[in-house]
Fold this protein.
Amino acid sequence: MRQADTIGRLAGDEFIVLCEDLPAEHDAVDIAGRLIASLSNPILMHCPTAAGREVSVGAGVGISFAHAGRTSSPGPTSCSAMPT
């Protein structure tokens, strides 16, 4: 994540990351890959009922591009990044 990026929670397990002014579209795929890798690291639990247990989570990421200066378009360019 970059200092200028915005992260928001949409619902229970749905989040959005807004990355403005990326130099190239493949940079969004790189960011998504790093997010997926970070989320896949095991988490050591500290709560009383699961103390000492490690849990893992997974994530799917959708990427959508909006291009500045376009007033009409058939829709955003989209792709997805999935865990490898």
